[in-house]
Amino acid sequence: MSRRKLFSVVESPTHPDLAELYARLGFDETKLSSTRKAMAELKTRPPDVVVAEFFYGYGNNYAGVNISNLDVLLFSLQKYAPRARVILMVDKSERQYVDKLNEILPLHAVLLQPVAAAQMEAALRD
pTM for the full model? Predict the structure, then answer.
């Protein structure tokens, strides 16, 4: 049986290392250091699950058009992996902005930082 593909988009030190959990649950994890790298990878190896951190675009960081660091990745998932489940990790202070992303691609789970292995396991088993 083929292992399921999971992308971990690690853009900050708050992203937990859950490699052991992913392996135990049968995922082949690919760690990517940016959404840009994740978009390049998904064109050749579409993931089953994407785990990423949400960062709200407060200023012109995202050209004033996008909500966050993940908008463009979610649009790419629509094309290359529309059935991928997206699990976001977000700081409590930015949680209020996350639901806008559901308009781009339905989110599977939103977990408040810091994320424990048990929380991630529950989201992955859902």
Answer: 0.92
